[in-house]
Amino acid sequence: YFFLVAAASAEKPNSASFMGSPSKTRRMKPLGIQLYECARGSPISFRSCQALVLILTFLSYASYHATRKTTSIVKSVLDPKTENLGMLHWPSHLYLQDLRDAQGNMTALYSGWAPFNADDGTALLGEIDLAFLGVYAIGMFFAGHLGDRVDLRILLTIGMIGTGFFTAAFGAGNWLNIHNFYYFLGVQMMAGLFQSSGWPSVVAVVGNWFGKSKRGLIMGIWNAHTSVGNISGSLIAAAMLKFGWSWSFAVPGVMIAVVGLAVFLFLPVGPEMIGIEEDIHEKDAEKDDMSAPLLEERSASKEKAVGFIQAWRIPGVAPFALCLFFCKLVAYTFLYWLPFYISHTAIGGVYLSDTAAGVLSTLFDVGGVVGGILAGHISDRLDARALTAASFTFSAIPALFFYRIYGSFSLYSNIALMFVTGMLVNGPYALITTAVSADLGTHSSLNGNSRALATVTAIIDGTGSIGAAVGPLLTGYISAKSWSGVFTMLMASAFVAGLLLSRLVMAEISAKMESRRPDAAASDLPVSSMEQS
Predict the structure, then answer these.
(1) What gap in Å lies between CA 269 and CA 254, rounded to an integer?
(2) What residue ranges carry the coiled-coil annotation (predicted)?
(3) What are the percentages of helix, strand and coil residues in the chain, rounded to 5?
(4) Residue 25: which of 235, 450, 34, 518 has the closest Cα?
(5) Which end of the chain offers a freer environment for a tag, N or C, measured as fewer CB atoms within 10 Å?
């Protein structure tokens, strides 16, 4: 569903201007594709470009999330509760064996890092999260606007290399023996700024290459990049802890920079940019049924971009945007604080190491993949987005309660409840950011305006990202007193998220009931036939 969001997020240049100037087209082709065509002796095919776009954008956004996940893994090292540390030898290779030196003192890895190992350490870590997510949320509102006016390949490359630099710079605080809080705060703010370029760029590029047909299998795989990035980021950061927490930042930082260079060398932004003629594009589209436009093509001169206030007035935008605020509040609290919570909670009477906690926390993202696919499938079958999203958010409330109460009973109960919680928390989050955004961006009130989708998507995701900043910040303060208070906040947020959709849910239920009435079916044959299909 992700590429549906992108169909109007970038204005395609006039293909005639490129077809008439082969030298200009060559200059705009990525260098890697030019070298490939020279070595092969023939132009790259349309299908090859589609595959290349899917692979590169998948790796790109997965690497963004991998760097984003690192902080949550390292938190329990920066701010440990040394008196609670214990060992659980399952599986033994995931744990650090030497907690104390020969004199019986805690090793440097578990002594924390100033200023985060002070009494207000968790609050400072919460402020670090706020710095990153706050700038990220603000940047989201402008990144799409900027992407419409610059080369998306260049924008994405700069964003990835900048993200890699500032991710590594956070870890460099260990090597440079930096203990100034404002250094880490500033680094995270800059990282958030560069990260905000990722989402609108990858979505716009994929939207240039793919249309509406055959999106199920393709986007079902591509949609997993967020969770794949979270899982890989957790595993890499956890594995690097034994070498020092700085390496947990340095390695993902180098990785995203390398992927960024690959994007610069090989990513084709659109068919016109690499010289694929429009008629060939259209023939391939008819043959493969993969490039049908999301919206009707209209004269650019007749279309006006939808204004910010006008987009808010589209039916459904405000409730879904506010719902996503609370959905992301819950989801990002787990993203940034779950490994910390696991390592500081006795599971079956013992405490897991930071490495093991980071590995175990990946099961939340595995559940999120299942939840996102399940929510999308159910909403398609029922044709009821709000009802599906609200059902998931309300179901997440008992899941959060049971995870807090019974998740510490045993390792197996923790695994099972964490998986279910991830499924119910991330399900509506994934649904709203993909299918719902596409639905609202192509609402009937827009009369097919193709320049509304990007604005609607920015409003919904930007509002949600503000919630993503608030949740981890509040957790930093509340967790210092009680983790039960944190879970109460999360359950209340899930309840409010579902409540915000109540009017839309009632409207969907009423529409379903009306559609089942015999007189309604007889009086509205086109609707009935569409529903049957």
Answers:
(1) 24
(2) none
(3) 75, 0, 25
(4) 34
(5) C
Which pLDDT belongs to residue 438?
A: 62
158: which 2 tokens?
A: 């700069």
CA distances to 217, 233, 370, 438 from 54, rounded to whole Å, are 12, 20, 21, 19
**In this structure, are residues 368 and 65 in contact, taking their beta carbons and an 8 Å threshold?**
no
Q: What pLDDT score was predicted for residue 103?
A: 47
Q: Quick one: pLDDT at residue 256? A: 97
Does one domain contain both 201 and 340? no
**Residue after which a domain boundary falls, among 292, 319, 348:** 292
Residues 121 and 203 in one domain: yes
pTM: 0.70
Separation between Cα atoms, residue 453 and residue 335, nearest integer Å = 28
Are both 378 and 522 inside the same structural domain? yes
pLDDT digits (tens, 9 = 90+) for 389-402: 999 999 999 999 99
Torsion of CA 17, 20, 21, 22, to 10 degrees: 120
- What are the beta bridge partners of residue 347? 350
Q: What range does the domain containing 382 cover?
A: 306-533
Instruction: State the pLDDT at residue 33.
Output: 87
Whole-angstrom distance, CA of residue 447 vs CA of residue 256:
40
> Within a domain: residue 237?
yes
Percent of the chain with pLDDT over 90: 32
The per-residue pLDDT for 30 is: 87
Above 90 in pLDDT, residue 249? yes
- Residue 287 and residue 342 share a domain: no
For residues 393 and 386, give the distance between their C-alpha atoms in angstroms, rounded to a whole number: 11
Q: Higher confidence at residue 247 or residue 116?
A: 247
Question: Which of 292, 317, 340 is at the close of a domain?
Answer: 292
Separation between Cα atoms, residue 289 and residue 281, nearest integer Å? 11
Among 371, 418, 370, 399, CA closest to 490: 399
Instruction: Give residue 142's pLDDT.
Output: 79
The residue to which tokens 């490939």 are assigned = 36
**CA dist., res. 262 & res. 260, Å (int):** 5
Considering the domain architecture, whether residues 261 and 335 belong to the same structural domain is answered as: no
Is the predicted pLDDT of residue 68 greater than 50, yes or no? yes
